[in-house]
Amino acid sequence: MMEDLFLPAINACIVVLGDIGRSPRMQYHACSLLDHNCNVEIIGYQETEPLEELCRQHSKCKIHCLTPVPDVNFTPKLKLIFKTIWQSLSLLRALFSINRPKFLLVQNPPGIPTLMICYFYCLIMRSKLIIDWHNYTYTILALSMKDGERNLFCRFARWLECYFGGKADAHFCVTKAMQMDLNNNWGISNVTVLYDRPTSRFQPIDLYKKHDIFMKLSKSYSQFRAETRDDLEKMRVKESTAFTQKLHNDIVQYKADRSAILISSTSWTPDEDFGILLKALEAYENNALQHSQDFPNLLCIITGKGPQKDEFVGKIERMKWVKVSFVMPWLDFEDYCTLLAAADLGVCLHWSSSGLDLPMKVVDMFGCGLPVCAYNFKCLGELVKPHQNGFVFENHQQLSEHLNFWFEKFPNNANINATKQVFIKHLQEFQGLRWRENWNTHALGIFNKYF
């Protein structure tokens, strides 16, 4: 990479018509471009804090915040029209305030109005347009439309997405299945598959770091606090959480009767059915109550923000739980990485509106060495290999069976040791390729055409 330091710096622009802080892949693109001597300007909404690396390199990286769409008392259709016009004008204003970029990298979805605006901007400024396909806009819109993909607006969105998407100079996508679909059904052939990979932030951690994150979270969430101070009062223990304890010689131990930790992250959107998880946990609860000596208490941690969170919280509160408890924190990036590595099993309920994208949360969990139960859909096999690095399920019964298998006689079930060793082996192989190396191998050559 050293030779890049001697290249003349070029200007690059990244457009995210969403929250920059919750668009990790586009932030990783920005970090990689900064590593290769680019001046990067990012356009998007800033609802959460971006990665520290982007803030540190402020002299070469500028973030242009779009003005949020005002909340107006219109009908749903008029709201959609108003939102499109507002975002178009806001995006145009931001684009014409930056230095002319050599190339513009845009995230899709959302493709409306992004692709059209970015195409005409690049045409006027003679910049190269590169699209990073994460999914399809029209399939996401179809989730909220009465007639689904047959809806007139969805069909129009698909035409816009196909027409302006096909005019880009280069393309990235997240799966081989999407690459094939873009080629066969959209006539876009110059697509490079760039799999999501974990950054070096997502790593397995030792028990000392697990204790530290539990101690930190215990200050805000009672579920992480020790239930009794007996050990402390006997002067045998220096610090204690619900899961770990630090002795006076600074040795950290797991508690023998600790709860198991199940973790999931979500944006609380329609492409994740948390009803499946709730039913599976209810089944686990019933089974655990009948066989209380064989199954531990289970702490279910669900991180993230989104529109369906309040509805899920309401459902939880209406049920009586004995063996299962919940905590739904909003974590900063560092704590999120650490907590993933401290959990016992991950759950992913993402099912993909197109069936052609892969959940980055699973990539993050694998980076931390955390096995995953993932909802099965068309191309999930490009990431999750059943009984090699995780489990797949298609309904709550199957998920419940996996939970019962994994947590029976927790944490000392000799019957699943062989499965755990297989998981560890494959997860370590996955961790051997991180974002930076993968980007340098598969993406740098595309950008180099415009360097």
TrEMBL record:
It is a single-pass membrane protein. It is found in: Endoplasmic reticulum membrane. InterPro entries: ALG1-like, Glyco_trans_1. The keyword Glycosyltransferase applies. It catalyses: an N,N'-diacetylchitobiosyl-diphospho-di-trans,poly-cis-dolichol + GDP-alpha-D-mannose = a beta-D-Man-(1->4)-beta-D-GlcNAc-(1->4)-alpha-D-GlcNAc-diphospho-di-trans,poly-cis-dolichol + GDP + H(+). The keyword Lipoprotein does not apply. Pathway: Protein modification; protein glycosylation. Gene3D superfamilies: Glycogen Phosphorylase B. One of its GO terms (molecular function) is chitobiosyldiphosphodolichol beta-mannosyltransferase activity. Keywords: Endoplasmic reticulum, Glycosyltransferase, Membrane, Transferase, Transmembrane, Transmembrane helix. Residues 260-410 form the Glycosyl transferase family domain. GO terms for cellular component: endoplasmic reticulum membrane. PANTHER family: BETA1,4 MANNOSYLTRANSFERASE, CHITOBIOSYLDIPHOSPHODOLICHOL BETA-MANNOSYLTRANSFERASE. This is Beta-1,4-mannosyltransferase. It comes from Glossina pallidipes.
